[in-house]
Amino acid sequence: MAKHDFMTPKAVANRQKSKGLQRLRWYCQVCEKQCRDENGFKAHTSSDSHQRQMLIVASNPTKFIQGYSEQFERSFLENLRRSHTTKRVSAHVVYNEYIRDKNHVHMNATRWTTLSGFVQYLGKTGKCVVDETEKGWFIQYINNDPVAMARQEELKRKRQALLDHEERNRRFIQAQVKEAQAKFGQDDDEDKPAHQPRVEKVSMSLKLESKSKLASVESKKSIQSAFGQDVDDKSGKDGEPSSSFDHETSWKGGKRSAVDAIMEEETRKRQRRDEDDERANRLDHWIQPGLVVKVMDKDVGDGAYYKQKGLVVRVHDTYVAEVRMLESRDVLRLDQEDLETVIPLVRRPVRVVNGIGRGALATL
């Protein structure tokens, strides 16, 4: 039978049909030939070229199957990494995206007969995080790239170095506070005996009976001049105790002002330290068991769980949460990027999920 010309309607129709994705069951991986129907596939399998290729494969079938399996796994994981990174997604969605390429390696040529078996293999080898739900198998890529792992290690070292620096600053400030307290404590102990004898002298001088008015006036003047008080004070005998009291009060006032200055400086340092602690304690993960969260990814369950609330039951690998939906009671494993915190009503309990006080309970 003669072939159709290039621009004949039959040839154009054949080219249009060949552009689309054909049935996978009528594809020969050995010859890399796509047949359009069952009759064409039977005709191809009975051809001489196909028989020669099958003889080559029959000489070492393990080698060919292993090669096709490695190509299929490598291409599948590459598509998962590029399209979905580390997000949790249905295995059927990833597979449908993979088979859009007409030149992809078909699963029929690999050692896996079903997609479920291939997904379980990825979970056992630690290349992906897999879980089975009522809607099928879900898969999440584990990024074992050396560059990404080195970046994570570098961030971890920087965070640890920042914490060590904050700890050293905290110890230094505590040592300064103790030194200042000890210093002012010693000054207090040294100053008290110096004033007490003077007070005793004043009291004794007041109790002594003067033989003449002149002697009593001179003694009062000498005592008052010693305490820096005006000679013409009208308080009489009560002037000396009041002068000693005023001096004692002014000395204590000076001591309090110095302590206040130190306390103000420590308060400013504490505020700066709290700000640094806030930045240091703010991590890139926040999900915790017992939190009420909201699903914000429309791709989860084809939008069936969009903006629905759930309770975090368990946390896996820091960033993946096992969430039980409050309405449908379904249990899902979701990445924290697909979730959002829920603000409770006023006077209801709330939990701090990041920064200073992380994990603490409070009332809104």
UniProtKB/TrEMBL annotation:
Gene3D superfamilies noted in UniProt: 2.30.30.140, Classic Zinc Finger, DNA/RNA-binding protein Kin17, conserved domain
Origin species: Aphanomyces astaci
Keyword vocabulary terms for this entry: Metal-binding, Zinc, Zinc-finger
InterPro entries: C2H2-Znf_KIN17 (IPR056767), DNA/RNA-bd_Kin17_WH-like_dom (IPR019447), KIN17-like (IPR037321), KIN17_WH-like_sf (IPR038254), KN17_SH3 (IPR041330), Znf_C2H2_sf (IPR036236), Znf_C2H2_type (IPR013087)
Coiled coil: none
GO cellular component: nucleus
Example GO BP: DNA damage response
Residue stretches making up the C2H2-type domain: 28-50
Official protein name in the record: C2H2-type domain-containing protein
Example GO molecular function: double-stranded DNA binding
Pfam families attached to this UniProt entry: C2H2-zf_KIN17, KN17_SH3, WH_KIN17
Keyword Metal-binding: yes
SUPFAM superfamilies, A to Z: beta-beta-alpha zinc fingers (SSF57667)
Family indicated by similarity: Belongs to the KIN17 family.
Basic and acidic residues composition bias: residue spans: 192-201, 231-250, 265-281
Keyword Zinc-finger found: yes
Chain spans, region Disordered: 179-205, 224-281
Domain of life: Eukaryota
